[in-house]
Amino acid sequence: MNKLTINSERCKACGLCIAHCPKKLLEPSPALNEAGYHPTVQKEPEACTGCAICALMCPDVCFTIVRAKEAAGEARPAAEVRP
Ligand code: SF4
Ligand code: SF4
Questions:
Q1: Residues with CB under 6 A from ligand 1
Q2: How far away, in angstroms, is 81 Cα from ligand 2 center?
Q3: pLDDT, tens digit, for every residue of 1-27?
Q4: How far is CA 26 from the centre of its chain?
Q5: How far apart are CA 70 and CA 72, in angstroms?
Q6: Which of 16, 21, 61, 64 to mutate to test the pocket of ligand 2 (most atoms within 8 A of CB)?
Q7: Closest C-alpha to 42, from 71, 58, 76
Q8: How far is the CA of 22 from the centre of ligand 1 (A)?
Q9: What is the pTM of this model?
Q10: What is the pLDDT of residues 30-83, one digit of tens each?
């Protein structure tokens, strides 16, 4: 399963990640962080595709995503080599 973590203390609740998740898996937490914002949380983590659109959209670099294949030790090619 893809594993997504969100640094809730960095989140300023701009909503960009929520608006752009294609699976609609992100929502504001009812709780407040130290800065007084409702940080984004993920629901239904098993449905996350690991697309990383949320991480790309976040201006505060709140997301860390470990895709299932990477967690299992399958390295991604650094670059595609063509003859
Ligand atoms: S990685 Fe993709 S599917 Fe998963 S929460 Fe982020 S935007 Fe949504
Ligand atoms: S894009 Fe980043 S700062 Fe904005 S709501 Fe999402 S996690 Fe928080």
A1: 4, 21, 23, 25-26, 42, 48-54, 65
A2: 35
A3: 889 999 999 999 999 999 999 999 999
A4: 9
A5: 5
A6: 16
A7: 58
A8: 7
A9: 0.86
A10: 999 999 999 999 999 999 999 999 999 999 999 999 988 777 776 555 555 555
